[in-house]
Amino acid sequence: MNKLIGILIFTCCLQMSVFAQRGERIEQVEAMKIAFITNAINLTPEQAQQFWPLYNAFQEENRAIRKEERQMRRAADLNESEAEALLIQYFRNQEDKLNLERTYVTKFRNVISAKQVLLLKKAEQEFKRKLLQRVGERRGRGRN
To answer: In whole angstroms, what is the distance from residue 127 CA to residue 130 CA?
Structure first.
């Protein structure tokens, strides 16, 4: 019985450690993204103070839409009527994303220039590409 309790406690501690490390990694990536974007679009301290709360709100709303999209991954398990409903939802999500982007570009334009907004889109893509490249390199090293 004591062994079982010990194993259970060890497993819980191990899981908590993994979640803590994952949380730290997410925070590190977010900090890198902030630095990368700030530099790429050349934000002034005044702009940054107004921009980042807006950007974070945009990201949060965008995450909610993407969460709904993840349901599309289970398309193989659906019957035809469920697939039809999911397809309709897919187009609603696309419209929601476009409307969200339009709304936030307008809000961003109150804080940063049009050129900086365009550079933001480019910087987001570049950061994502570099991050995926880095993850791929790490996975490749782990196999050797």
So the answer is: 5
Residue 8 clears pLDDT 50, i.e. is over it: no
- Identify the residue whose tokens are 């050797």: 144
Q: Which tokens go with 110? A: 């109150």
State how far the Cα of 32 lies from the Cα of 123, in Å rounded to an integer: 12
pLDDT attached to residue 13: 43
pLDDT tops 80 at residue 21? no
Whole-Å CA distances, 82 to 65, 86, 89, 91, 96: 19, 6, 10, 15, 21
Count how many domains the chain has.
Answer: 1
Tell me the C-alpha distance between 81 and 86, whole Å. Answer: 9
Instruction: Check pLDDT > 60 for residue 5.
Output: no
Whether 66 contacts 96, CB under 8 Å: no
- Residue 71 is part of which domain span? 2-143
Taking residue 116's Cβ as centre, other Cβ atoms within 10 Å add up to 19
pLDDT for residue 119: 97
pTM for the model stands at 0.73
The DSSP string of 4-53 is HHHHHHHHHHHHHHHHHHHHHHHHHHHHHHHHHHHHHTT--HHHHHHHHH
